[in-house]
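Input/output pair, single chain:
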Amino acid sequence: MLLDSAFPAPATMPCAALAFHRRLAEWNRSRASTVFDAPDWLTSLQAQYRMRRLEHDFVGAASASVRRFAREAPSDPERFCAWFSRLDQLRSNTTDRLFGRLANDASQSQLRWYLEQHAVAEAGFSELSALTQQKLAPSVSTSSNAPFDAVSGDPLACLGQTLGDAQAREDTVWEALAVSNLMVALAANRRYAYHAAGALAVVELTAPKQRAAIEQGLARFGLSFDLLPFDFGTQQNWSWCNDVLPALVAQDPSAASQIAEGALSRLAASARYCERCHGELDQIRESLEALRSPVLIQGEAEASYAN
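Output:
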């Protein structure tokens, strides 16, 4: 199945989508930050209610778009894991082309632009993983030997700092903000804990290809991936795919479809994000080539043809 056409984005105007996701991203930063009580607490409470409704509608639309396919997920733990492992085969032609360009022929400007978008889209992966772990650890520990790490400190407070550091630039595309907003919504709300587990697991499943492409692209310019402040969730002593998901489905078979919805929602959001980045790289290339091309005076051009 091709992700490009299977799960299209909801019909919306790009300017409206950008305004919405900028607003949601700003709220995510503020609610994850340490703040004193607002003087007008009732107004603040009403604003939080409005934003939570918007967040709920956003996640609901993302889940609804993949629900039919998510219901095909088996409820048997072993069969579910086999089904989940094949999600990496849900190809996006645009994503493949984007990774190929990053690895083989993207310019330094193009690669730098993509990494800036990536910093926004993937901001707070460690903190989001810890938040989800915090919600699921009691359930998993009673039904499995999955080696969950002990969560130290306050992941939500750390998330506020991380989201603040990954400030959205003026040229940040709304699809990058949408990926970040989706992950925060799933991890920060207990009702989406199973969805968050699926989304984090599918990142773990698909991240190696993206990392390999970025590493190869950076190596062309003598740069190392290890110098970048990115966390793909691959350096852990436990695995969402192999340790956590089987335990969750074994304990509650009905969790399988919710885990699948979270994974597929993340895959679809990532596919839309990669499609946008692929198109934007073309614009960056055209802009740079236009700057490099000499401006021909009409007489010179005619003289060259005459020769």
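The radius of gyration is 22 Å. DSSP finds 14 helices and no strands in the chain.
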